[in-house]
Amino acid sequence: MKLVLTLMGAGLLCGGCASVSPEQYSKEQPVLDLSRYLEGPLEASGMFQNRQGEVVKRFHVKLLGTWSNNVGRLEEDFDYSDGTTQRRVWTITRVDSHHYTGTADDVVGTAQGEAYGNALNWRYTLALPVGKKVYNVKFDDWMFLMDDDVMLNRAVMSKWGFRLGEVTLSFRKLRQ
């Protein structure tokens, strides 16, 4: 009986962990086409909040995207509120009409993306330097295209199943 109650409790807890499916956004407009939105220059502003909700770091990002056929290159240059900088270069491949893969030097393995309607869900592990150590942190990253110029991004970071915090970003397409 004790085992049954334990399993039922675990089932209830895991039910709260079920993630949202990107497919539920399939009718949302405008449709997010990464190769179109991430082409050319963009800028973004964001923040990292720890698990208590405290803003720990703010940042600005300058981005430049280029695409050839189904493969894109996205250069990201970060300027953090503490004076540090960082550069990440993504290679993004459109696998089919709803799926993307991505790689970058600090991404462990390959990022997996699924897009429907105005939404994209990226899931990946990032090698995150903290002090003199590097931690592999999982990202559950959601992007929502608001209009032709603005995309909002919210990522939940976790390690060993524990929520570490959130990253929130607002992207803006720059017109040339």
Q: Your description of this structure?
A:
The protein is mainly β. It is built from 2 helices and 10 strands. The protein has helices at residues 2-15, 34-37, and strands at residues 40-50, 55-68, 71-80, 85-94, 99-103, 107-116, 119-130, 133-145, 150-159, 162-173. It has a 10-stranded antiparallel β-barrel with strand order 1-2-3-4-5-6-7-8-9-10. Strand 2 and strand 3 (71-80) form a beta hairpin. The longest helix has 14 residues, at 2-15. The protein is globular and about 40 Å long. The protein starts with a helix and ends with a strand. 18% of the residues are buried. The model is unreliable at 3-16 (pLDDT under 50).
Measure the end-to-end span.
67 Å
Shape: globular
What is the string of SSEs from the N terminus onward?
A: HHEEEEEEEEEE
**Rg from C-alpha positions?**
18 Å
Point out poorly predicted stretches. 3-16
Strand content: over 45%
Described by strand count, sense and barrel closure, the largest sheet is: 10 strands, antiparallel, barrel
Strand line-up across the major sheet: 1-2-3-4-5-6-7-8-9-10
Report the strand count: 10
Question: What's the topology here?
Answer:
Layout: H1 2-15, H2 34-37, E1 40-50, E2 55-68, E3 71-80, E4 85-94, E5 99-103, E6 107-116, E7 119-130, E8 133-145, E9 150-159, E10 162-173
Antiparallel strand pairs: 1-2, 1-10, 2-3, 3-4, 4-5, 5-6, 6-7, 7-8, 8-9, 9-10
